[in-house]
Amino acid sequence: MAIEILNYTAIANECKQLVTLLQRYTDGKGNGIYQTDINQLEFTRESSVSTALHDVCEPILAIIVQGKKEVLLGEETYSYGAAQYLVVSIDLPLNGFVVEATPDKPYLGFKLNLESLILSDIIAQTNLNTPKKENSVRGLFVSDASLQLLDCAIRLTQLLDTPQDIPILAPLIIREIYYRLLIGEQGEAVRQIATSGSNMQRIAKAIKLIKANFTKPMRVEELARQASMSASSFHQHFKSVTSMSPLQYQKQLRLLAARRLLLAENFDAANAAYQVGYESPSQFSREYSRMFGAPPIKDIQRLRTA
Predict the structure, then answer these.
(1) What does the pLDDT look like over 161-194, one tens digit per residue?
(2) What percentage of residues in the chain have a pLDDT greater than 70?
(3) How many Å apart are CA 79 and CA 99, to the nearest integer?
(4) Helix residue ranges per DSSP H, 108-230
(5) Distance between CA 149 and CA 146 in Å, rounded?
(6) Which whole number is the average pLDDT over 244-251?
(7) d(Cα 167, Cα 199) in Å, to the nearest integer?
(8) Average model confidence (pLDDT) for the chain?
(9) What number of other Cβ atoms are within 10 A of residue 220's Cβ?
């Protein structure tokens, strides 16, 4: 019990140190996502609870330093707060909400893009291979941050004060962060990102094909063949990794693309629907309302006045 209390106190202190650092780098800049001088590293700041942010998220490590957030993947909700982290190990369409933030105590997040080549190299050096009997694991998970992981995050952030050190030291600390993830409680899921022939990599290959051709009719049998799986096995593994079917995944990509056309390029709903592959404007409107909570015109009006 005493060891647990000491560890909790140490983690809380590390988190406070990260809060101080991130506030210093984001104060006076308003809400938003801020790219740092370290290519893979971004900070997020929000001073109030946020509406849903719908997007396709590529592989990342996201540590909450202060505040709380919820992420929706299909019908599943993931909640996490300070000193917890989320890893997305495969491209996934997500809805994110900041659920705890105030001007005096803003939501602060540390986000690091994950690169499979670096993970592969560390796996090769450490023999952290995926077991032969591999289970398909969800491409998103939430865990408590260890003291060692938070220490890595602090040291990486502190490099922003000495930019001359970034080219040499940042890659070393990033490798250490990857190593901490690989040996952590969700190590199997992280290993599958970079293990050749893993179910995760096979599904990732199929996702790239879906993303490249999302406006066209889907041929699931061809996707299964490209993933070297039977159609039934492909369906099972795809849903295990993404929480949705290939058709549901394609639908979310289409609706996200249509929303961008409506918002940024002033398309009307019918033209946006056809542009992303819908043949029926009424079906598009129904599915758009279901995903974004309002018909296309009302949703775009709401976004422009938010």
Answers:
(1) 999 999 999 999 999 999 999 998 888 888 888 8
(2) 94
(3) 9
(4) 116-126, 147-158, 166-182, 187-194, 199-212, 220-226
(5) 5
(6) 96
(7) 34
(8) 90
(9) 17
User: What is d(CA 305, CA 206) in angstroms, rounded to the nearest whole number?
Assistant: 37
23 pLDDT more than 60: yes
Q: Is 79 helix (H, G, I), strand (E, B) or coil?
A: strand
Handedness of CA 123, 126, 131, 137 (dihedral sign): negative
Q: At which residue do the structure tokens 């015109």 appear?
A: 297
Residue found by looking up tokens 């101080």 in the block: 20
Query: Would you call 117 exposed, middle or buried from its count of C-beta atoms within 10 A (0-12, 13-18, 19+)?
Result: exposed
Q: Which helix (H) or strand (E) holds 254?
A: helix 246-264
With CA atoms as reference, report the closest residue to 262 among 286, 293, 238, 298: 298
What mean pLDDT is predicted for residues 32-53? 90
Closest CA to 87 of 190, 174, 200: 190
Tell me which residue of 305, 286, 306 sits closest to 296, measured CA to CA. 286
Q: Are 220 and 256 in contact (CB under 8 A)?
A: no
Distance of CA 290 to the CA centre of its chain: 22
Do residues 242 and 276 make contact, with C-beta atoms less than 8 angstroms apart? no
Question: Which H helix or E strand runs over 266?
Answer: none
Which amino acid type is present at position 24? Answer: R
Closest CA to 141 of 185, 99, 194, 173: 185
